[in-house]
Design brief:
The chain is α+β, with helices and mostly antiparallel strands. Helix content is about 55%, strand content about 15%. α7 crosses α8. The protein starts with a helix and ends in an 8-residue tail after the last helix.
Length: about 160
Amino acid sequence: MDASTRGRPVLQPDLGRTAPELWTGFRPAALEAGIEAIFTFPLQVGGIRLGVLDLYRDSAGTLNPAQLEEALSYADASTAILLRLEDRQLVEDVLPPDLVDRTGNLAEVHQATGMVAVQAAVGLAEALLLLRARAFSGEGSLLEVAGEVIAKTPVPWT
């Protein structure tokens, strides 16, 4: 969450030495699972946040310059792939068949996200969450809810 919210990498080379009040829900479980270091990179283009790339290490230690450069390259590549998923054929080629129908046309979802951001006076990340929540609550697929927004069907966002 920190990397996504701040829009910059979060590099924690020694999770065991991290202040206990930091990541109170995550830190104990990660340490118990054997995670000693975490490096998280935001996947974003401008104000659109697509997610994060998390890298875990089972021993404490920083990333050397070559490793950091490689991690940043992977984050850039992941962002590019996510953006290309708007291409329906690429979606069908990359995702398992049971997930293809759920992705829909991401261009419409992006357009609706911008419209919801204006209507609800919130940021883009929160607007996308509102769209997803509406779809999750049973009011249709994410693509159907986005289509209603684009068609200017009145949808209360509060």
